[in-house]
């Protein structure tokens, strides 16, 4: 599951070196903040000259415009009519410093990469209500996440960005991959004596 992620201006500056095209909309706004569903965030997508950085809203409108759909299961995404156009033709990469997940005791856990300051989350987008809106893919939690939640974002490696965006024949393999182990940090964790 991924319901809140964090971005900052330093990360955005790093990501600009990956993109060959950058939407002018990204020159406005403050980007050091937590991103929640329905908010705008920088997203990497396929451009005419390579990777393009776009400003998009997080989440598809829910059924009958109630709520918002902000995650999709990697195991079933190709079967869902709502997601078929996006996953086939509009794959996206969502950069993040880290994301948050709350355990059953409502304690906040922060997950980040051990080997890099930027994480790349697999997703896709479509045009809805006259704007580009993205969804983050989730998969079964690996060992680093399982004690907190049974789902986690599908994390891409930096060398997979172009494959995910430009090579549709790689989609199925990437959807099935197990994400890298992540570093977990908590604000508070109960210790046991026995």
- H and E order: EHEEEEEEEHEEEEEEEHHE
Rg calculated over all Cα atoms: 16 Å
Strand-residue proportion: 35-45%
| Biggest sheet architecture | 9 strands, mixed
The strand count comes to 16
Low-confidence stretches: none
Helix segment tally: 4
| Class from helix and strand fractions | mainly beta
Determine the mean pLDDT: 91
Query: In angstroms, what separates the terminal alpha carbons?
Result: 31 Å
The 3D shape can be described as globular
Task: Estimate the helix proportion, in percent.
Answer: 10-25%
Descriptors for this entry?
mainly beta; 194 residues; five-stranded antiparallel sheet; 16 strands; 41% strand; 4 helices
Task: Give a topology summary.
Layout: E1 5-7, H1 9-16, E2 21-22, E3 33-35, E4 40-47, E5 50-58, E6 60-61, E7 68-69, E8 71-73, H2 81-89, E9 91-96, E10 98-102, E11 108-113, E12 119-128, E13 131-140, E14 151-153, E15 155-156, H3 161-166, H4 171-176, E16 182-186
Parallel strand pairs: 2-5, 5-13, 8-13
Antiparallel strand pairs: 1-3, 1-10, 4-5, 6-7, 9-12, 10-11, 11-16, 12-13, 12-15, 13-14
Give a quick summary of the entry.
By secondary structure, the chain is mainly beta. It has four helices and 16 strands.
What does the model show?
The chain has four helices and 16 strands. The mean pLDDT is 91. The chain is 15% helix and 41% strand. With 194 residues, it is mainly beta. The strands form three sheets. Strands 2, 4, 5, 8, 9, 12, 13, 14 and 15 form a nine-stranded mixed sheet that branches. A five-stranded antiparallel sheet has the order 3-1-10-11-16. A two-stranded antiparallel sheet has the order 6-7.
């Amino acid at each position: 599951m991924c319901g809140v992620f964090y971005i900052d201006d330093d990360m955005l500056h790093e990501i600009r070196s990956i993109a060959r095209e950058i939407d002018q909309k990204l020159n406005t706004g403050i980007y050091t903040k937590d991103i929640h569903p329905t908010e705008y965030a920088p997203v990497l997508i396929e451009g005419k000259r390579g990777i393009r950085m776009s400003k998009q809203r997080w989440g598809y409108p829910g059924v009958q415009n109630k709520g918002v759909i902000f995650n999709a299961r990697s195991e079933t995404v190709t079967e869902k009519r709502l997601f078929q156009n996006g996953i086939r033709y509009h794959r996206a990469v969502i950069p993040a410093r880290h994301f948050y997940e709350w355990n059953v005791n409502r304690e906040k856990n922060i997950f980040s990469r051990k080997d890099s300051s930027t994480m790349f989350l697999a997703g896709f987008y479509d045009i809805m209500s006259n704007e580009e809106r993205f969804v983050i893919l989730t998969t079964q939690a690996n060992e680093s996440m399982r004690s907190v939640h049974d789902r986690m974002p599908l994390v891409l490696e930096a060398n997979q960005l172009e494959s995910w965006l430009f090579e549709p024949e790689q989609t199925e393999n990437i959807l099935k991959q197990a994400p890298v182990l992540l570093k977990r940090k908590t604000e508070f964790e109960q210790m046991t004596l026995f």
